[in-house]
Amino acid sequence: MEGLRVSGARLIIYIHPSKANKVQQAILRQLSSFLFQFDDAFDGVLLAYEIKFQDKAAKILPGIVPYFGVRVKAKLLIFSPKPEMLLEGKVVKLGRESIHVIVLGFSSAVITSEDVREEFRYKIKHDKEVFVSTSYRKHVIKVGTILRFSVKSFDEEMLHISGSLIPEDTGCIRWLYRHTTDGLLHEHVTQGSSEIERTSKKHKGKSKEMSLQEQDSVEVSGRSNMSMINSDRPHKSKKRRIYDS
Question: Which member of 90, 111, 197, 218 has the lowest number of beta carbons within 10 Å of its beta carbon?
Fold first, then answer.
């Protein structure tokens, strides 16, 4: 699915001296505070992480006394949907005016009737609301369907996606797989809803393997006393420091 990426990063995480005897737990807690929230440092929503300590000993860093920094390497799973990307999600509600979808178990998406292509018609079949294709009557969208849709916009604060079914390669994933030769669809379907459910279990499982991206160097700090070097944001970067009490 588009919108997901794994990024490598070298981090400096700032720890208060009171937590010096539990450094690893402090680092994990601080990283956990970033989960399932959009952050400019990552240019996306952090879904999972895997860290590897670089230094056995921490160093006192200038300008942030009394905090000390610990260098770690991290692999970050980031969700960063952009316009025209193709996402998949499960239809949880459907009506004449809109289709409501959950993506990766945490982000909501809405596709309004004006963004549903004319091929689909709203109907009630067997007391259930559905959208049925007038060209292919077996192409049906209903509650429970794993839907492929295009991104129109993404609200970073609310984690809300505005979607579209206008592109021809959108619709029910299973139907698209059976009736097209697009090689990408095979990947989407074989992973299916199990991938969506697996990813939504936060960081309890291991991050899905993807190609590791190389990044340019920047430094940013977040609300959890973390600096990141090697972000893949090409332009705007910020420095923010807010320390734990």
Answer: 197
For 87-97, what is each residue's pLDDT tens digit?
999 999 999 99
**Cα angle 43, 110, 170; round to 5:** 85
**What's the CA gap between 16 and 39, in Å, rounded?**
22
Please name the residue that has the structure tokens 């295009």: 150
Alpha helices in the chain (DSSP H): 23-32, 173-179, 183-199
Antiparallel, parallel or unpaired: β 160-164 and 107-112: parallel
CA-to-CA dists, residue 101 to 61, 133, 141, 145, angstroms: 46, 19, 11, 9
pLDDT at res. 61: 64
C-alpha to C-alpha distance for 24 and 228, rounded to whole angstroms: 17
